[in-house]
Amino acid sequence: MKKIKGALALLAALSLAACGSGSPSSGPAESSTGAATGSGAATALEQIEVGVIPIVDVAPIYLGVKEGLFEKEGLDVKLTLAQGGAAIVPAITSKQMDFGFSNVTSMIVARSKNLPLKMVAPGGSSTGDTKADFAAVMTKPDSGIKDIKDLVGKKVAVNTLNNISDSTISEAVKLAGGDYTKVQFVEMGFPDMAAQLAAGNVDAMAAVEPFVTISEADGNVPVFSNYAEPVDDLTVAVYFTSDEYIEENPETAAKFARAMIASQKFADENPDKAKAVLPDYTSLEPDVIEKLTMPRFYTEVNEASIEKIAEISLDRGLIEQVPDLVALLPAK
């Protein structure tokens, strides 16, 4: 129960970077200089605000702040917690925040609706291992679901309909030779999924860490990772801003991108330090953190994976046409 309680504290925002509902948090925010700087040093740095979600995916930006990687670029970072992309996107477009975090499907959908958003740096990526990833479709050991194709005719819980989880699962079912239209997706929050699975109200659930680890501790088993399959080396989430912000603040945008990429590299090369920063912004228990499978934190957005997600989004009717991906992807 301790593990579950610790994860629940994280959940309001765990609509993973999918276009979850919610608003920016009024809770405490982190700063790259911190209160300890006290004097003129803080005023010499340019202040920026970044909307994030309290999930394992954003560990690099917290670690980068802690390690002084943003301060090195002359940036004082305020990290503001939000409950999901639905809160962060309008905060960016209305200039309430400078940068934000969201999953790539939400970015593609937003750009297809003519929202002038642009990726500036990568976030979390799949490990590429269908059996050991930070996302997994979980089921009960006696459910009869042994492989991807067995999801046909089943109810699968996802945190947000018409987004990255259901579209990647349906594509995996399609590639496995199953009729993906016969998979019934049910929307619910991550912390509600385990109880609904136990009660038999759904047959499987699309979980992300820490809920993969917690679900396994409860005796459930993974079927496959919908982030590792069907898209190779999937960039799951990114940091973004608006076209207008980049036009008005090109140097700041470049500094943020450099610091973010440096933070990604540092986190990927120091996974223990990335895990160690999790208690700074979550309430996860130490035993859960120890067992977590972390995302990979690459320094580049995998363009091929974004193109594939756009194709899947178009095929599933999430978008009417593929947006200009050159305008959406980070500048080269």
Automatic annotation (TrEMBL):
What Gene3D superfamilies would the database entry show?
Periplasmic binding protein-like II (3.40.190.10)
Signal peptide limits? 1-20
Q: Write the record's keywords in alphabetical order, separated by commas.
A: Signal
Where does it reside? Answer: Periplasm
What SUPFAM superfamilies does the entry give? Periplasmic binding protein-like II
Q: Where is the Solute-binding protein family 3/N-terminal domain?
A: 47-270
* Main subcellular location: periplasm
Give the family, as the similarity comment puts it. Answer: Belongs to the bacterial solute-binding protein SsuA/TauA family.
Record-given protein name: NitT/TauT family transport system substrate-binding protein
* Protein species of origin: Paeniglutamicibacter sulfureus
